[in-house]
Design brief:
The chain is α/β, with parallel strands linked by helices. The chain has a single domain, classed as Rossmann fold. The protein contains 8 helices and 7 strands; from the N terminus they run αααβαβαββαβααββ. The protein has a 7-stranded mixed sheet, sandwiched between helices. The longest helix is centred in the middle third of the chain and has 14 residues. The radius of gyration is 17 Å and the shape is globular. The protein starts with 5 loop residues before the first helix and ends in a 12-residue tail after the last strand. The N terminus and C terminus are likely disordered.
Length: 229
């Protein structure tokens, strides 16, 4: 019998983010979820008052970049990183006529490339694919890449309080059993990692079942990064 190895076997059994089949299913399903749109609305509320440079970690089809550009017209440069060829193709097509946007291939399991500093770093449903150790080192890299007062906003898939609640969440988002590539962590643990990395004003700004918006900022004595109430 041909021994394909574990990774090859898993790939044959289930499509991965490298496959158009999985990307098409995801973009068609998740884009229709009212909960996702609600989380994105809260993300806009967390943006700094002005944004010149924004970085999107695991940018997918560029949805969050579009959201930020629509909310902050003054953005001069947006950089998106992803390692899924189908997602990269979608994002590059979406911004083919926008010179402000650069979409680069990068695996978040590896250290972030040197890209300069940013007023805003966002991520949407991407970081939960990393193991917990890498999640924590990535947060340190995020802090190093943010300007004083810069904001990190992570719209994320998180671990629910019980297995039963987790299964109900999966059912409600149309993915019974979840995604075998997910490595989920509870909210409180992730907020602790954010504080340990050096972020301040850390909180869960919004949650719906297994979706959550986790936000923090780099120190700025005047705290002008957050919009006034």
């Amino acid at each position: 019998m041909l021994d394909l190895g574990h990774n090859s076997y898993v790939r044959l059994m289930r499509p991965t983010w490298k496959d158009e089949e999985k990307v098409e299913e995801y973009t068609g399903r998740v884009g229709r979820l009212a909960a996702r749109r609600a989380g994105e609305s809260e993300l806009v509320e967390a943006l700094p008052e002005t944004v010149s440079r924004v970085l999107d970690l695991g940018c997918g089809d560029g949805r969050l970049i579009s959201l930020v550009l629509g909310a902050r017209a003054e953005v001069a440069e947006a950089v998106g990183l992803d390692n899924s060829p189908p997602m990269l193709a979608l994002a590059r097509a979406a911004f083919s006529d926008d010179d402000r946007v650069t979409i680069d291939e990068h695996d978040l399991r590896e250290a972030l490339p040197t890209l300069g500093s940013f007023d805003l770093i966002v991520s949407g449903f991407a970081i939960h694919h990393l193991d917990h150790e890498r999640k924590q080192t990535l947060l340190g890299e995020v802090v190093s890449a943010l300007r004083p007062g810069g904001v990190f906003a992570n719209l994320e898939v998180v671990q629910c309080g019980t297995p039963e609640l987790q299964e109900e969440f999966y059912r409600r988002i149309g993915r019974p059993g979840g995604d075998p590539e997910d490595i989920l962590a509870p909210i409180d643990l992730q907020l602790g990692w954010m504080r340990d990395a050096g972020l301040e004003q850390v909180d869960c700004n919004w949650r719906w079942r297994g979706f959550a918006l986790l936000v923090g900022q780099v120190s700025d004595a005047d705290l002008h990064a957050f919009p006034s109430a």
